[in-house]
Amino acid sequence: MSGGIAVATEGTTLRITLEGAVDLAVRESAAPVWAALAAGDQDVVLDCADVTFVDSTGLSLLVRLVRDVTESGRRVRVHGAPRAVTEILAVTGVDAWMRAQGVEGV
Questions:
Q1: Which pLDDT score is estimated for 88?
Q2: Distance of alpha carbon 85 from alpha carbon 87, whole angstroms
Q3: Angle subtended by helix axes 56-71 and 83-92, to nearest 10
Q4: What is the pLDDT of residue 40?
Q5: How far apart are CA 100 and CA 84, in angstroms?
Q6: pLDDT tens, residue by residue, 68-78
Q7: What DSSP line would sit under 1-63, residue for residue?
Q8: pTM for the complete prediction?
Q9: I need a labelling partner for 4 at 20 to 30 A (CA). Which of 14, 79, 84, 90 fits?
């Protein structure tokens, strides 16, 4: 299954939705996400409920998203992370780093 990334504004929240395989193709299609992050100051919900796979480039995308949002003083909440997401976060230690950044739902 190919992956995808979408961004939508929901009131005062920016929802970034990931689906399928989060890999290089998804990272390369994320320009609208970076534009939305740069244009606003909303807190972010990172919706991972439909993610089936995350590789190292997908992991780097997650790290960059969290870093960019938290460095700008906004909050991040991970929603619906399935085993495909939680396992790679745990194995790499990124889950602990995210919690240290104040990310909720990890």
A1: 97
A2: 6
A3: 80
A4: 87
A5: 21
A6: 999 999 999 99
A7: ---EEEEEEETTEEEEEEEEEESHHHHHT-HHHHHHHHH---EEEEEEEEEEEE-HHHHHHHH
A8: 0.94
A9: 90
Per the listing, tokens 């299954």 go with: 1
Flag whether pLDDT at 1 surpasses 70: no
Tokens 């939508």 locate to: 8
Measured CA to CA, the distance from residue 61 to residue 13 in angstroms comes to 19
User: Using one digit for the tens of pLDDT, what is the confidence trace for 16-68?
Assistant: 999 999 999 999 999 999 999 999 899 999 999 999 999 999 999 999 999 99
Which two structure tokens, joined as six digits, stand for 42?
């909303």
Residue 66: CB partners within 8 Å, gap ≥ 6? Answer: 46, 76, 98, 101, 103
For residues 11 and 15, give the distance between their C-alpha atoms in angstroms, rounded to a whole number: 10
